[in-house]
Design a protein that fits this description.
mainly alpha; 85 residues; 5 helices; 74% helix; 0% strand
Amino acid sequence: MDLLCSLLKNSKTEEDKAKVIETFPKILDYVEKSDDMFLLLNGTQTLKTFIYLGHKHVLACSTPERVIAVCKKLLSPTTNEQSAL
């Protein structure tokens, strides 16, 4: 996930950004299904980076409801508090 964030941050064109952001739905699935604290921490940072740098592309490949569902999991009282950062 760190590699994807680096690729996104260093993308020169919108086409390059779009190619990296195509992985966003898979990242959402991965974060939503995981209980690993380190994955959730990295997932939180990755989601934040993707939404900040490519929100138009994110909306093209995912729905706000899907993103909110993953955020609800990260903010759930049963999830490690570190993932809520």
